[in-house]
Amino acid sequence: MEHETIKIIEFEVASGPDVPGGLPRQVVPLLSPLWRGPALRLEYPDGAVHTVVGWRQGRDGAGFPGELQIFWTRHDLSAPPVCLAIGGDAGLRDLGPPGGEEMPKGYPFLALAESMIPEEVLAVIGPRPESAESRAPLLLA
Description:
This protein is mainly beta and 141 residues long. The protein has one helix spanning 119-125; strands at 8-13, 23-29, 35-37, 40-43, 49-57, 63-66, 68-73, 82-86, 92-94, 105-107, 110-112. Strands 4, 5, 6, 9 and 10 form a five-stranded antiparallel beta sheet that branches.
């Protein structure tokens, strides 16, 4: 009998000004290819546009932009899939709308609603994987 290999991804976020307390190491299944990029443009239903970047912590304590990774995962093998965006060792930073007066906000990660996933990301990660409960049962004889 063949066993399906489950790929995992690990990430953590160091405590810092954007994410006080940080986020301990997380280990989640990787259900899709990884989309990687320097920034993500999110268009909200109300028309607001935000730019999100990965965030890294420098040796001098100052932060700087880093790579973003987006993929399908689930927190438990029986849970519904979710599209997760993660950044660097200091998490993610929402730079807000272009030219806006909002201060940047830090997050350990973002879960993206399907309607918010840009087409260029979907082209890499694909559509939401089937949930365990939606798969046809296997009959063993």
